[in-house]
């Protein structure tokens, strides 16, 4: 048996070594991937601190403002990771948008909403949850706001990790309430406002779900269950798109452009009616052309709802950026104002550099961590198609309009997820109704077993219970965490 030359043995050894290095490189790449998001997030948080130092470096309490800016950036990242999924989840779950397309659209429209229409004057912090004058000193107020910001961010981060879409607004409210109680006692809290917020835990999802189910019933009865579905769609889809356009025009007039111009609800409704009628007229020939050559089946109808669904998701992101950026930067702006002037009892104006931190933080959070919750809302609660997702988006806009008219503090998260649940539970009810109808027509047909009925449930009960529990404990959990953080800060800084 001939031995291999030394050169061959050396080559084999070299190949083995190179293979080991290649495997090591692959393994390190695989293990480092989960660290990319947190790493980029940490860089962004540090950059927010540097920006704060640049704008505030030579003034009093500059170190406090730098720390607060880092906490505000952390909160903005968590809002992007958790809250924005409610706007984009249905469109992704319905297949109208890819994950990359959804994130791209959301980043642009969230940032535009925050920078163009966000940052209006925030009245006494967190919508009157606590009385700032009860804090006594500016230092106590600053510690309370820092505790509120950190507790809200930690809670939303935990909820995102668990996979539960929670209200960032309620997280901030709970944080401010807990810090206020820790700093000044239970008398510092505006309990009537807190009662209204507690009522919104029920009102928001029920109203959003009912409206979404109502529109799905309309689509099913007027289009899907018709003999000639395409002819029915040519009549009803322009009407539905007109309703959507009117609802979003009203929504944005009320909520999205407050910084530019204040509009009362009557004027907003008139604007919405005019734009809705215009879009309805424009869509009639567009839908007629789209419907040419389509087969008379449900799958064909998805084509007609695709573009309206994408537009509605983009508009929801714009309005969300305009309104919810204050959740990240409201307490930060309060700290900046109190540190600058010592004034913490009057209205708080948000500086532009603070808005930049909020807008970019939401975008980074969505880009780095958003897919998890987008998949949850869009595909894991119940199966969505463009028609069902369209109903969810439309119900979100209409519910906010109704809530504004009634003066109710509602959560966009609760409304959107409530809409998804509403669509799913309506489909269960409708399927059960059709089974009973078929059994009346065919008495000999065998009944479904209990196991088969459970299998045919169209809403995942485990997700339903997890999300419901997260909603209920958000305010008390954030409040408890905030109170503990306030006591810790106060004891360290005393």
Verbal overview:
- This protein has one domain.
- 81% of the residues lie in helices and 0% in strands.
- It is elongated.
- The chain is mainly alpha-helical and 494 residues long.
- The longest helix has 51 residues.
- The N and C termini lie far apart (84 Å).
Main pleated-sheet profile: none
The amount of beta strand, in percent, is under 5%
The overall average pLDDT, rounded, is 81
User: What is the helix/strand order?
Assistant: HHHHHHHHHHHHHHHH
In whole angstroms, how far apart are the ends?
A: 84 Å
Global Rg: 26 Å
Supply database-style keywords.
single chain; 494 residues; mainly alpha; 81% helix
Summarize it.
This protein has 494 residues and is mostly helical. The chain is 81% helix and 0% strand.
Spell out the blueprint of helices and strands:
Blueprint: H1 6-56, H2 62-82, H3 85-93, H4 99-117, H5 124-128, H6 138-162, H7 168-184, H8 191-224, H9 229-256, H10 265-290, H11 298-341, H12 352-380, H13 386-406, H14 412-441, H15 450-455, H16 461-493
Helix pairs in contact: 1-2, 1-12, 2-6, 2-11, 2-12, 3-4, 3-11, 3-12, 3-13, 4-11, 4-12, 6-7, 6-11, 6-16, 7-16, 8-9, 8-13, 8-14, 9-10, 9-11, 9-13, 11-12, 11-13, 13-14
